[in-house]
Design goal:
Butyryl-Coa Dehydrogenase, subunit A, domain 1, Butyryl-CoA Dehydrogenase, subunit A, domain 3, single chain, about 55% helix, alpha+beta, 3 domains, about 425 residues, binds flavin-adenine dinucleotide, Butyryl-CoA Dehydrogenase, subunit A, domain 2, about 15% strand
């Protein structure tokens, strides 16, 4: 259960070869924003025959919608249900993060956040119109929850959707939105504006789809960031954006608060794969360097302070791998990962990835601080895992909240 099978190894090797050939030569240009990650995603889908497979399975799934048969359930598995091997996604995510975490972030935002929300909440027509083009990378998605004044307190968002006959008028602003500068399809969370009471009510938030080119929708230039530089991040501005009611995902005014929580949980369970890739690469680089680099005529690996770093990195690698395997197993068996488990996993994996990347830099000394070994990039990228999809502090609060609730004490995240 806790090791890769032959089929997994083949996927790992094929992905590694693809990434070495198609991504490694482009990293400097991606980092500087001269090349965007989207054509790489398309090439990946084409190389591995994903586009045709997804289209065929999607059509089958749509035909069966409404029947609710067991067969349908297993077809739905093609997009993440019980018939799917979730370890494959973990391996792909891990391999991408080894080489270029930014690509994983941009892919995760379009497929997992935007595509995932449409597939989870949309009607069959909405899935076909907006979900399928995202799943096949024909279109790129962005997922807008965070606003300038609401981050950790995400549901305090102020963007509004005012009903107007068969339309809604959207007003507001989203920020830190991955892919926003170049996305074609935006999933935007808003509150229905029916007067002051509804606006203040945190419980009701609704995802709308807005297409690029819709009058009133504009985006910022890509933000300048510390890391994840190859994953464009930006703001989305909504100024009297008029969308037909068919753009409300699910087409009923049924709050998506729980579904949005599922998206956050999904982001949390994606963190182990990314941390696994970052740590695995940092450890490999460090071990190799420790055997080659000599000081005082001895490989630095003979110094016990370097050995300690290597051993600590290995301990983290083992733990993160085990978490990733557990999540894949739970998903396959249809077992729910609880909120506290998902938060504990994200907290541990994110911190471990940052620590290992920092230790790799230290073990490589001045060379670690230079770009050539890429560990400095991995460190800058790893840091995002402690912030995006809920900060470390929010994971800690969520864990404590659930543990205390089990004993009858209700506490609030906001203190
Ligand atoms: C590169 C990048 C990509 C992103 N992509 C997306 C995206 O695609 N879509 C999207 O919607 N969002 C996205 N985000 C936003 C991300 O989810 C938020 O940045 C994150 O949730 C934190 O919110 P904030 O930045 O507003 O920080 P704040 O919520 O303002 O927090 C600031 C500090 O206060 C701490 N804090 C907050 N509340 C508490 C509390 N109750 N107790 C103790 N400490 C607390 C936080 O932990 C943090 O240390 C992205 C962010 C980044 C950096």
């Amino acid at each position: 259960m806790f090791e890769l099978q032959e089929g997994h190894r083949m996927i790992e090797t094929a992905m590694r070869q693809f990434l070495e050939k198609e991504v490694v030569p482009l990293i400097d240009d991606l980092e500087e924003g001269k090349v965007l990650p989207y054509d790489i995603m398309r090439k990946m889908a084409e190389t591995f025959g994903l586009t045709e497979m997804i289209k065929a399975r999607f059509q089958k799934m749509l035909k069966k919608e409404g029947k609710k048969s067991e067969e349908e359930e297993s077809e739905a598995g093609a997009f993440g249900g019980p018939g799917f091997d979730p370890l494959i996604g973990t391996i792909i995510g891990k391999e991408i993060a080894r080489v270029y975490p930014s690509l994983g972030l941009a892919m995760g935002a379009t497929l997992g956040l935007a595509g995932g929300t449409i597939m989870a909440k949309g009607t069959p027509a909405q899935k076909e119109r907006w979900g399928l083009p995202i799943l096949t990378f024909e279109k790129i998605g962005a997922w807008g929850m965070t606003e300038p004044e609401s981050g950790s307190d995400a549901f305090a968002l102020k963007t509004t959707a005012k009903p107007d006959g068969d339309y809604y008028i959207l007003n507001g602003q989203k920020t830190f939105c991955t892919n926003a500068p170049y996305a074609d399809i935006f999933v935007i969370y808003a509150k229905i504006d029916r007067g002051q009471e509804a606006k203040r009510d945190k419980r009701f938030i609704f995802p709308f789809v807005v297409e690029r080119g819709t009058p009133g929708l504009s985006v910022s230039e890509p933000f300048k960031k510390m890391g994840m530089k190859g994953s464009p991040t930006g703001a989305v501005y909504l100024d009297d954006v008029r969308v037909h009611k068919s753009h409300l995902l699910g087409e009923t005014e049924e709050s998506a608060r729980d579904q949005a929580k599922d998206v956050f949980a999904g982001e949390r369970t994606g963190a182990p794969a990314m941390a696994w890739g970052i740590i695995e690469r940092c450890l490999e680089v460090t071990v190799k360097y420790a055997t080659e680099r000599k000081q005082w005529d001895r490989p630095i690996g003979e110094f016990q302070l370097i050995q300690e770093k290597i051993a600590r990195m290995y301990v983290h690698l083992e733990n993160v791998r085990n978490i990733a395997f557990k999540h894949a197993w739970a998903q396959k068996e249809g077992k729910k990962i609880t909120m506290k488990e998902a938060c504990a996993a994200k907290l541990y994996c994110a911190r471990a990835a940052t620590e290992c990347a920092l230790e790799a830099i230290q073990a490589l000394g001045g060379y670690g601080y230079m770009k050539e070994y890429r560990v400095e990039m991995l460190m800058r990228d790893a840091k995002l895992l402690q912030i995006g999809g809920g900060t470390d502090e929010i994971q800690i609060l969520n864990i404590a909240k659930e543990l205390l609730r089990a004993e009858g004490l209700e506490v609030k995240l906001g203190g």
